[in-house]
Amino acid sequence: MGWERRRWLRALGVAGATGVAGCAGRGTGTTGTATDGGSTTRATSVTETLTETATAESELLGDPDAETELATVYRDVQFRDTEDGRLLLDYYRPRDVEGPVPLVVHVHGGAWAFGSKGGGRFRRVPLSEGAAFASVGYRLSDEASFPGPVRDVVAAMAWCREHADALGVDPDAVGLTGESAGGHLSTLVAAAPDVSNLRPAGVSARAARASCVVSVSGVYDFGVEDGGVGGTLVRRFLGCEDQACEPQRTQASPVTHLDASDAPALLYHGTADRVVPYRQAERYVAAAEDAGMPVSLVTGEGGAHVTPYAGDWGDRYERRQREFLREHLW
156, 212, 228, 321: least surrounded by Cβ within 10 Å? Predict the structure, then answer.
């Protein structure tokens, strides 16, 4: 079922039954008739619609892998097939929440060379707010250099939107989150939905557009030598050596693409970050404000790399994150 069909279901009052788990039998309906000039037309049965949706969910996700306090978990769901292999995501459907829900797509860190999907501590806030959560596995730099990993994130967003009915999510309310290298990828995707080179073939700018983005300790400007920004791991990600890297550095920098139409952004950065210096966040904020784009920065005074929930600022950051997600996804 497409986006318009989902809206039709919502208007009918049954879209809340399109959750990933336990959909069949949650609602009932009867077959009605419509008459026009003596002709009788059989209307679509609500029960038939729910059965169709539940079948699509089962075929897409299979059986749940786990149940947590906050979510029903489906692990290793394939969203893309590349020349380097299958790409998988873990999908978390919030429990006891009715109706199509917002979706947060999370991009893990690891210097574009390490790490894996999972989401860990970054799942809790979106799920407890009632949003679904998809943690994406993308190709690392030993498999694909820029723009390959960026396209993988876009592909995950597009796949979730394509299967919004089966996932039980609202395709018009998709946010991005990420930390470190994942913060870079998420803010780049959010800033450049119209850049065709950053999208897989066949994926539209609309499918690549985020509703908002939350980035923790991200890299935003490759045009400056800040700490590890410009080192070996960056060159490996960009797929070039210093003398030939200028075009890649420019296109891969989120600050290059910011304009007033971009998704609102919430950033966290620690002032004592020795991996990605705090100046990176300052550059992003300055570029966003110059472009007229909504942006907010939570600063961790003395905070190290990827420490959003630590220190004196932890509670303040969590409150701001919850407010931000509510404002832009609901």
Answer: 228
